[in-house]
Specification:
Nucleotidyltransferase, domain 5; 39% helix; five-stranded mixed beta sheet; globular; single chain; alpha/beta; 327 residues; binds zinc ion; 2 domains
Length: 327
């Protein structure tokens, strides 16, 4: 055993997986064919971090993990638009300084191994497909619903990124053209109705308009409107708060319409839903499934299931991404 470890030809090849998450950084090592991390480290990204600081912090995580060992390949999930073909980060919506950063080139020069990088939704889709809720499926659409709403396609067993790398933007599919204005400038996008921060904003607005409603939500937030989050709305809905339930159902409706339309267009076997908002409980899921079913043609069949990998979907997806590079 000891001898084989000393022989580089027989040593188990390892993959280094990195997750630049916007508010957190994570890195992990796994050996080929294994399903448990050999080592794993994460840290919160300081609020004033820029791209340089993120890179420096990630480097120190990497060196802590590797201890001089050389991985066979590196896979990266990045929380923002990425040109996966060129291995370039386009920008980050959370961290300044990431505009047009050739992340693959930087790390390939540094570690002398193949590096691949893609945005977190595409990478998480790949993670769920290879290691999570999508094992054995040929086609699926992964949707994450948390502070934003993003999506990633797996078609014929491989990521489908679109001609310009912009496929899967279900967050900005318009489901209500007369709805409220989204950050992207359009009205009634899925993200504008279903993301955690926008649900919280809608709750605050309704509480102002209807001061006699939302009693449970108010008390859960200790009467501090700023403390209202998507998670608190879910909690209040579960405890019977009708105002919270209305907001959650509207989110589920928006997501259901988006899913039904996506099903009509591409006809995937499976939709995998991850992110904080999807932990909202049975009522939310019932609405999503019912509205998606009502929106799609009766002949278009699909299942909608919860993601299996949770917060680790981007890291496991990064492993799969690196493996694709080596195969
Ligand atoms: Zn939008």
């Amino acid at each position: 055993m000891f001898q084989s470890l000393n022989n580089p030809k027989e040593a188990p090849r390892s993959i280094l997986a990195l997750d630049f998450g916007g508010t957190k950084l994570a890195a992990a090592i796994v050996h080929f064919g294994e399903r448990e991390w050999r080592s794993h480290k994460r840290m919160l990204s300081p609020a004033d971090a820029d791209a340089k600081a993120d890179l420096a912090n990630m480097r120190s995580l990497i060196h802590d993990l590797l201890q001089g060992e050389k991985p066979a390949a590196i896979g990266i999930s990045f929380g923002g638009p990425v040109d996966a073909k060129l291995g370039k980060v386009r920008l980050s919506h959370h961290v300044p300084g990431w505009g047009n950063i050739p992340l693959r080139e930087i790390l390939e020069a540094e570690f002398q191994v193949p590096v691949s990088v893609d945005n977190d939704a595409n990478v998480a889709a790949l993670g769920e497909h290879r290691f999570g809720a999508g094992i054995g499926y040929e086609s699926l659409f992964y949707i994450t619903v948390s502070t934003g709403v993003g999506g990633g396609w797996i078609l014929n067993g491989h990521p489908w990124r679109g001609a310009g790398g912009m496929a899967g933007e279900i967050g900005h599919v318009v489901v209500d053209p007369n709805g409220p204005i989204c950050l992207c400038g359009k009205r009634g996008c899925v993200e504008r109705l279903a993301s955690g921060p926008y649900m919280a904003a809608a709750a605050r607005e309704e509480l102002h308009k209807q001061p006699l409603r939302g009693e449970i939500l108010r008390s859960l937030a200790n009467n501090n409107e700023d403390a209202i989050t998507g998670q608190l709305i879910s909690q209040a809905a579960t405890q019977g708060d009708e105002l919270a339930l209305e907001i959650l159902q509207r989110a589920g409706w928006a997501l259901g319409v988006g899913i039904g339309n996506a099903a009509n267009l591409i006809n995937p076997q499976l939709f995998v839903l991850g992110g904080g908002v999807t932990k909202a409980g049975a009522q939310f899921w019932e609405v999503v499934r019912r509205v998606a079913r009502e929106t799609a043609l009766p002949e278009v069949n699909f299942d909608i299931v919860p993601a299996a990998l949770g917060d680790e979907a981007p890291l496991w997806g990064a492993v799969a991404l690196a493996q694709e590079e080596l195969n």
